[in-house]
Amino acid sequence: MTIEFDGLAVGLTRSQIIGKLQEKLSDKRFEHVLRVEQMAIKLAKLNQANVQQAALAGLVHDYAKEFTDQQFIEMIAKKQLDPDLLNWGNAIWHGEVGAYFVEKDLQVADKTVLKAISEHTVGASEMSVISQILFVADYIELGRDFPGVKQAREISYQNLAAGVWYEISNTLAYLVKQEVPIYPKTVLTYNAWIPSQLKEKK
Ligand code: GDP
Ligand code: FE
Ligand code: FE
């Protein structure tokens, strides 16, 4: 399904955006963002959310994924972002810093969409419905194949917030198992989304 973005603050048409994505993304990643767009549309419909915002966020969320470290470092300086970002790398930058490239190059001015892109990898304590939709759609798009993805889809279709929790708890466990550094915001997201009955037991 193709959704146009004519109701949103966006300077380009969908087909112009597609052209720019194809310039910057490998074929494999381009196919991924098309699948995230479709999954975001599905989740938006299930949750009576804005379908145009969800589709746009899905389509452009990984726009900066193949940018160079130097490009991110320059943007961090230009926008005077938190200097701690310099201790991290592409995995964290392509969302949080990538949103500024989406704003500049793809002429996306919709703040809800930009925020969702910024939060798409590590989430946030408070997330709008569009942020939750992008976070989950990226994880369960139909090309994903990891142990638990079927369960992740079933849970997320039933209850979006439960999908956010499933994703952040499994991602954090995976990252710990990989013995990679945990970005502090990842932990904040985990703590904020623990279902309340578990929280009370602490
Ligand atoms: P993708 O861009 O579609 O591949 O998906 P994401 O944007 O969700 O994730 C990008 C990468 O960031 C994945 O490899 C995650 O495992 C990784 N990642 C997510 N959170 C953290 C974190 O807290 N620390 C580290 N080191 N990596 C993370
Ligand atoms: Fe990403
Ligand atoms: Fe992605």
Question: What would you say this structure looks like, in words?
Answer:
With 202 residues, the protein is mainly α. Helix content is 64%, strand content 0%. The protein has twelve helices and no strands. The radius of gyration is 16 Å and the shape is globular. The termini are far apart. The model has no long low-confidence stretch (mean pLDDT 97). It binds guanosine-5'-diphosphate and fe (iii) ion (2 copies). The site of one fe (iii) ion (FE) has 5 residues, from helix 2.
| Distinct ligands, ions and cofactors found in the model | guanosine-5'-diphosphate, fe (iii) ion
- Secondary-structure element series: HHHHHHHHHHHH
Which percent band covers the strand fraction?
Answer: under 5%
| Poorly predicted parts | none
Reported for the largest beta sheet, the result is: none
Protein topology:
Blueprint: H1 14-24, H2 27-46, H3 51-60, H4 69-78, H5 90-96, H6 98-105, H7 111-118, H8 129-140, H9 149-158, H10 160-177, H11 184-193, H12 196-200
The site of one fe (iii) ion has 7 residues, from helix 5.
